Amino acid sequence: MLTKRKKLTKKEIKEDKLVEFYYKTQSYIEENKNKVLMYVGAFAIVVVAVIFFLNYRSSRNEEAGKLLSRVMDLYEQGSYLEAIEGKQGTNLVGLKKIVEDFGSTENGETAKIYLANSYAFLGQSEKALEYYDDYSGSNDIYKSAALAGQAGYYASKGEYEKSADLFKKAANVSKINPSRPDYLLRAGINYMKAGQRDEAKALFQIIRDDYKTSTAFAQVDRYFTELN
Q: What CA–CA distance (Å, rounded) separates 155 from 163?
């Protein structure tokens, strides 16, 4: 006489499926041992390569940071040409060389901003624009500076609307950037020059409302007067 089959619980069913999966996996590995070892080996090589790359990039970024810190004294002293070129026969590597050799690192990206600024201070606006435009680092302050640098270039060329758009974009990268009110002011001024009075007024109002302790606030009423 056949006995009534016991009904399996959900837990037992799950355990039974896991056991079945285990044996199927074991069987597959035994039948395809060479392939599995090859794929596991390839994956391990990829992991090692990624770790090596990250360590290499970190060491390169650290090296770029050391070189950048050495040349910053020249930059802050206003010796922009020397900051760009460095000093031969010393350990002072110029900003241009740092960007050439380490431009893909975060500190190399930072060097691009100081290199662009140096060219701008020397009146070489085209070269300055090239490096402002090339910045692709992750620091919000430098992102804003790169956009503002481009904005300044286009303002000097009489492209006021383009300049205003870039200054506005620079201001909106981060609301905690200390330069934000200045970027808003310069965006508004260029919108005024481009004939976009309402846009200018809206930006000036933000300065009035939110940045009462800024230097931009001290100037904004003058431009409001011009608009009214």
A: 5
The C-alpha atoms of residue 143 and residue 173 are separated, in whole angstroms, by 7
- For the segment 4-56, what is each residue's pLDDT rounded down to a tens digit? 444 444 444 444 555 555 555 556 556 665 655 556 554 443 443 444 334 44
Closest CA to 171 of 195, 193, 151, 196: 151
CB of 98 within 8 A of CB of 116? Answer: no
Count of positions (residues) in the chain: 228
- Cα(47)–Cα(58) distance, integer angstroms: 17
Name the average pLDDT for the chain: 83
| Residue 202 structure tokens | 């809206």
- For residues 109 and 122, is the Cβ–Cβ distance under 8 A? no
pLDDT digits (tens, 9 = 90+) for 114-143: 999 999 999 999 999 999 999 999 999 999
